[in-house]
Amino acid sequence: MAPFLLLLFLLSKAASDEIVVVQPGDNITLNCKAPDPSNIVLKWIRPDLEPKNNYVFFCRGSQPQTGNQYDQFKGRVELMKVDLENGNISIILKNVNYNDNGTYECRVLSGSRRRKREVDPLTTIKKIQLQFTDPGSKDKNSTPAGRYVGLAAGVAGVMFAFVVAVVSVRKYKRLRDNRPGTPADDKAGDVQLL
């Protein structure tokens, strides 16, 4: 039963992150909404890229900062200005390529001011997995994520069927052992006579 629960946990974690499927050359929107739009400090990162203090996109209010932006994103990322006052802090990534494949995190300032000892006062509020379709595919259903989800669903189905089979066999054995005239009842009767 423990492996089944572990699989459910892993599937729920994977389902909580958004997957965006793209093709090279697409312009895509990575959606994010700030819980408190009054004083926005926004940072989009790719945790797999080095150095860690760099970013995909960073802005205070509506003023983008490019000082520590990764070179591969310079000139290709912009903040959606639509509905910014209501917390829409989505970004547009232009002309995506295979190097853009990965997980993007939308982070905002947690609390109204920085704490001096805190290394990163920003809180991740959304994760987006950017994936490309297979080059020969005409549809967007043949992504690695699609195969992973399909495999996980298949494994979950097999595990569920196994659990149902085990429970059914146990119930059947319990019912069979409790019928009158079974060898288990005769042995119990012999013990009482002694």
Q: Would you identify the CATH H-level superfamily of the largest domain?
A: Immunoglobulins
Which structural class do the helices and strands define? Answer: alpha+beta
Helix count equals 3
Task: Give the biggest beta sheet.
Answer: 6 strands, mixed
Assigned CATH class of the largest domain? Mainly Beta
CATH architecture of the largest domain: Sandwich
Our count of domains comes out at: 2
Strands ordered across the widest β-sheet: 1-9-8-3-4-5
**First-residue to last-residue Cα separation:** 42 Å
Number of strands: 9
Q: Helix fraction?
A: 25-40%
Order of helices and strands: HEEEEEEEEEHH
Kindly summarize this structure in a few lines.
This protein has 194 residues and is an alpha+beta fold. It has three helices and nine strands; from the N terminus they run H-E-E-E-E-E-E-E-E-E-H-H. It folds into two domains: 1-16 and 139-194; 24-132, Immunoglobulins (Immunoglobulin-like, Sandwich).
Mind explaining what this structure looks like?
With 194 residues, the protein is of the alpha+beta class. It has two domains: 1-16 and 139-194; 24-132, Sandwich (Immunoglobulin-like). Helices cover 31% and strands 23% of the residues. It is built from three helices and nine strands. α1 packs antiparallel against α2. Mean pLDDT is 77; it is low at 4-16.
From the structure above, extract its key features.
single chain, 194 residues, alpha+beta, Immunoglobulin-like, 2 domains, six-stranded mixed beta sheet, three-stranded antiparallel beta sheet, 9 strands, elongated
